[in-house]
């Protein structure tokens, strides 16, 4: 059986662009967004993926 990747968190500057079951972290600017994503990446032992629209997704790959 193939394991699936899991979205662990979302870090965004635009709350209107996101929704769903993962924790959502709202940031005021790009600097805060990058710092928050970096810290979450380390805490969750996951990877950050920048969607290039003001939103980053923290994903745990199986």
Give a short overview.
The protein has 62 residues and is of the alpha+beta class. The protein has one helix and four strands. It is globular and about 40 Å long.
Structure description:
The structure is a single chain. The protein has one domain (6-60). 24% of the residues lie in helices and 32% in strands. The chain has one helix at 30-44; strands at 6-12, 24-26, 47-50, 55-60. A 4-stranded mixed β-sheet has the order 2-1-4-3, covered by helices on one side. Strand 3 and strand 4 form a beta hairpin. The longest helix has 15 residues, at 30-44. Pfam families: YIEGIA_cap. InterPro entries: YpzH.
Treating each run of at least 4 consecutive H or I residues as one helix, how many helices? Answer: 1
Number of domains: 1
Major sheet: arrangement of strands: 2-1-4-3
> How would the global form be characterised?
globular
Q: What order do the helices and strands follow?
A: EEHEE
Quaternary: single chain
Largest sheet: 4 strands, mixed
Low-confidence stretches: none
Number of strands: 4
Helix/strand class: alpha+beta
Pfam families: YIEGIA_cap
